[in-house]
Amino acid sequence: MFSLNKHYIIIIVCACLSYQVISARGASVSVGVNQEDDDFLNGTFPEGFMWGYATAAYQIEGAWNEDGKGESIWDHFTHRLISPIIDGSTGDIACDSYHKYAEDVELLKALGANFYRFSISWSRILPNGTNDVVNQPGIDYYNRLIDLLLENNITPMVTMYHWDLPQALQANYGGWPNESLVEHYENYARILFENFGDRVKYWITFNEPFNTCELGYGLSIAAPGILGEAIQPYLCAHTILKSHAKAYRLYESEFKPTQNGQVGITIDTEWMEPRNSSNPDHEEAAERARRFKHGWFAFPVFFGDYPPVMREMVDAASAAEGRNQSRLPTFDDNWKTLLNGSLDFLGLNHYTTELVAPGGLCLFPGWSCDQHVTKTKDPNWEGSASAWLKKVPWGLRKLINWIKDTYGNPKVLITENGWSDAGNSGLNDTQRIGYYTDYINNVMKAVILDGCNVQAYTAWSLMDNFEWANGFTDRFGVHWVNFTDPDRPRIPKASTVALKKIFDDNGFPEEK
Ligand SMILES: *[C@@H]1O[C@H](CO)[C@@H](O)[C@H](O)[C@H]1NC(C)=O
Ligand SMILES: *[C@@H]1O[C@H](CO)[C@@H](O)[C@H](O)[C@H]1NC(C)=O
Ligand SMILES: *[C@@H]1O[C@H](CO)[C@@H](O)[C@H](O)[C@H]1NC(C)=O
Ligand SMILES: *[C@@H]1O[C@H](CO)[C@@H](O)[C@H](O)[C@H]1NC(C)=O
Ligand SMILES: *[C@@H]1O[C@H](CO)[C@@H](O)[C@H](O)[C@H]1NC(C)=O
Ligand SMILES: *[C@@H]1O[C@H](CO)[C@@H](O)[C@H](O)[C@H]1NC(C)=O
Ligand SMILES: *[C@@H]1O[C@H](CO)[C@@H](O)[C@H](O)[C@H]1NC(C)=O
Ligand SMILES: *[C@@H]1O[C@H](CO)[C@@H](O)[C@H](O)[C@H]1NC(C)=O
């Protein structure tokens, strides 16, 4: 997940102005629609449903320059002279999982997790991003982790890219907007499949490419911190989609026949609810927002090309700006074929809901403006420690149903869902328990009442960790971590008990 760093609100105030103008006006019309959850459902998930926890390398590993690891864009970003991180912190040590991974596996076991979704740090394997130098100690680290998971009957699920590009690829190529990265990503993917594919059967090529591109290369609030919303995010997304397709096809042709694993991509989105659900213009705006956010990445991997509404609107905006070329690049037929159907499962990260209405004042061109929508929150929604994260459990059920209807009921793995509290909130995290209970209950409704093909649920996160631009201020863990103690002890919160019960029960059975 990602939240806007308060330091940067001032810089992007122009981008937000359009939202705020409308938001002040819109708040009064946003309520009154009956969006209440229906009753709690007792029942269980189908047999074989998978339960797990997720983390990401930069957020937990630490050891940023140990044993031959190269610098990543997040190392570089957090080490800037003027810190872009709200509390000035870095992931240099984070949860120290590079040294404490065995304890993490113990925690997962105690929680009754069937699988663990973690990410591999590209620059720990290839210090300079390219495959001319392979760092064996990096390979050894992930071998130890994978083997220990398997010894404990916990299935490894690997995210191949969770935002930490090797800095050398940023410095030498300008990062993801440069198409040269497709080849480097494919080489990296091959090294992962070759070294770990005998034991790893779930591969996620990219985590939340929206955030990599829009926040990293557009709004500059994530690494590498580049401001250039008009074109850079669209080029970044284009390279990432091609890289995904190449890795998928590589696995399909050279590894799948013997390794029998699955490859997917994790796309994040809020549920986009029309602000006024009886106004067709609001419903149309909400659908546009869904396609600009989720469809930007999902349409190409399911159908081979960007959503038609993006093509029309970005082309039109580009022409109106006097450009001779659309800001949204095009795929030729060869790329369309490689992309079309390039996933064995869809990874879904979801946290919250937006209310969407048409319009918005556009001050500079880019993804936010291109879709002509305004997003607001209902002030009645329960809030977390993160300004962007409000509890709207029915939004997840609606989103899963929309995915079923839009993409033909694909296999979905929920790869992240979770709740933040603040540093001093203690161990009795009743709000988090309420969030998980109600969100998981809505997933169950989508599966057993609506026939949606969701096969796994992943809680974010195993423990408090480095929350990107928000540093250590927003805590998403079911374990509390003391970041001032050099030993980084992990202390269970009350939610560990509640989630273990849901996992063990496979849902919410009637009490006998
Ligand atoms: C990686 O790049 C750095 C800086 O460009 C360079 O000093 C170093 O020699 C490179 N390392 C390898 C192993 O090629
Ligand atoms: C991509 O990187 C190569 C190698 O550094 C460079 O020659 C080229 O100009 C870059 N392309 C763009 C679009 O930045
Ligand atoms: C919602 O939209 C309908 C249809 O356009 C309209 O009649 C109604 O007044 C709107 N409700 C609010 C609260 O704006
Ligand atoms: C994608 O594949 C489907 C069937 O497999 C085909 O009908 C469709 O035309 C393809 N789309 C593109 C853009 O190639
Ligand atoms: C389009 O405009 C850019 C500069 O804005 C120029 O470099 C490029 O050559 C133009 N392309 C065509 C096809 O006219
Ligand atoms: C946790 O908080 C809830 C609600 O505030 C309270 O009812 C409960 O007794 C607390 N549990 C513990 C162990 O303190
Ligand atoms: C966190 O660790 C520091 C250093 O060991 C210690 O002084 C402090 O009491 C710990 N905080 C808590 C809440 O345990
Ligand atoms: C339904 O599930 C909840 C949550 O596990 C449980 O507390 C409740 O007792 C169950 N209801 C019935 C009727 O068994």
From TrEMBL:
Keywords: Glycosidase, Hydrolase, Signal. The keyword RNA-binding does not apply. Gene3D superfamilies: Glycosidases. Pfam families: Glyco_hydro_1. InterPro entries: GH, GH_1_N_CS, Glyco_hydro_1. The keyword Hydrolase applies. Residues 1-26 form the signal peptide. Belongs to the glycosyl hydrolase 1 family. This is Myrosinase 1. It comes from Orchesella dallaii.
